[in-house]
């Protein structure tokens, strides 16, 4: 993004954004504004995302609004999360620096906070778009259902309103116009009228059928937007009139409008299908009032932390919290893709988006709606398309140059052959050039490609996999090396004490007591397992001088004597001889007053589907699997051998893991990608350094959701293989559309040049191909891979 200055991410809702070409024009126009370092328009969710420098924020945003209205005057602009009032309320922003690292958290107008997202310098790929705006009120969630009037009172001064999406009223109006145009065309063709009277009928039919297209084309030309579909259709049909092909001029406009209607319906259907996949936003919360059992139904964003809510059977849990009373089975499939219900009882964490199956639950709210799991998921999925895949960038650039080139070629087709070839007439070659123009519209590509990627992201989310951008979904296709953290990723991270070996005159109970005192203040899983094995009150009053030595263990004074509890490195540092057992597991050595008193062995259980995950990845063409762990070499190698991992690197500190990953980067191919899979809590530097960072077990974990590019909402490593399969299917469908659209257009362009294709075939190759490409893109939504 540049260097050194703080960046602010702003998002605008573009209510009435009616076509992918319009989105492309807005993106190109706004990206040229001085002060905007990055800009992206998501046609599917009608959102404009842009990064500005903080000192120029307001004036740049106002300039962006003016630019949008100059390009598409009918669009109503509002700040994301502020509804569609048409008034901008510039309250919600997030800051990022130029490396793409989101800055300090800033609360905004009583709403939400944006989480920090730290990325390391020198990162090979850009995480520059990781400014996540979690916690909006999602007024935009159903905006695709709005109908946009064709020149209504709210958009006075806008164009007469040709739209790719039609509400019920607009559909009836357009169908009436198409019917009237068709009747007038039939009357002009078969009536006994001729001369000016017949021409008048053709003109009237043309104006009724396509007057809005012509008007919009002229308005766009005045605004400097020449080469778009309105221009192509206007030139082609008016050109048909100019050479006396009146019936075709009118018929082509009728057919084009009908095709656009079908295209709009297909796009809307795909938008709604994507939204239905993520239809997890709760509508209300039942808040307990006073000391009694009375409840009050309120909007989820009005509930405060500490409030108690009731969730009845069949209702969706509206906010994150802890179950205080009641017991029930809940359906978590909307968040995790898991079909097996989960049991909740007092003390269980309940996440927004769960559906209560049978009992009644009383839940104490621990997060506001803006910070809740469901809110974060919705925002992540809906904002994902602002980080575009290379294929989308290619199509955007292709469309920008493609149409002008085609117009120039059409002019050459119209003018050169009649001048150079004997017997060639201008009328014939102008007609061929007009056919060429109609065929050339790149709608099929600019509509279906973003829909394909967005559908892939939606399908992944239904499978419990959150992908933060189309670029990461596409990158998963090129993964050849997968690097796993061990604890919490391939293993359950639930440690248990399996053996206690005291030495000399010291008893096992004394060994456990000293270890429990040393680990009393640590939240590490190993410390928790030692405290659980001790199972009694820990006499912390006997201890002082607590000191945690990173990557080694703990030093603490107990009744005036120094106690060490940690790995072999801690013992070596203190010059204490120790015994190393042969048993696989994590070993905690304990020493008191410089004397070794024994060790505790703690084992971690391998996840049930970890071996299946490694095997599935190899079947997908992954060249190398690697495991990195801070555990002892014996433990790491035992787990690696059990799972079939290719390479194991043990006894690594967090910075050692980054170095090891960088060594793997050097040895990979230029187009190959490396994925790192970690638990998202202590692996942030490595997640950031990998080409694609995947956080495992992200259900409710803020750290996991923040640090990674892909979040697997369950604890199943096999979901990574599912994510790669979904990515491959998405790319296959996207490239099917590219090949189909360009192939059909190439064939019809040739047929048009040789005079074989008429305007009827030309219109099919434009709107027909677009409708088919959109329907093909919708197949992505049906991917179910669990």
TrEMBL record:
The chain crosses the membrane at residues 174-193, 199-215, 398-417, 429-454, 734-756. InterPro entries: ATPase_P-typ_cyto_dom_N (IPR023299), ATPase_P-typ_P_site (IPR018303), ATPase_P-typ_TM_dom_sf (IPR023298), ATPase_P-typ_transduc_dom_A_sf (IPR008250), ATPase_P-type_domA (IPR059000), Cation_Transport_ATPase_IB (IPR051014), HAD-like_sf (IPR036412), HAD_sf (IPR023214). Its EC number is 7.2.2.21. It comes from the Bacteria. Pfam families: E1-E2_ATPase, HMA, Hydrolase. Residues 73-169 are annotated as: Disordered. GO terms for cellular component: plasma membrane. It is a multi-pass membrane protein. The keyword Calcium does not apply. GO terms for molecular function: ATP binding; ATP hydrolysis activity; metal ion binding; P-type cadmium transporter activity. Keywords: ATP-binding, Cadmium, Cell membrane, Ion transport, Membrane, Metal-binding, Nucleotide-binding, Phosphoprotein, Translocase, Transmembrane, Transmembrane helix, Transport. It catalyses: Cd(2+)(in) + ATP + H2O = Cd(2+)(out) + ADP + phosphate + H(+). Residues 111-129 have a biased composition (Basic residues). Belongs to the cation transport ATPase (P-type) (TC 3.A.3) family. Type IB subfamily. This is Cd(2+)-exporting ATPase.
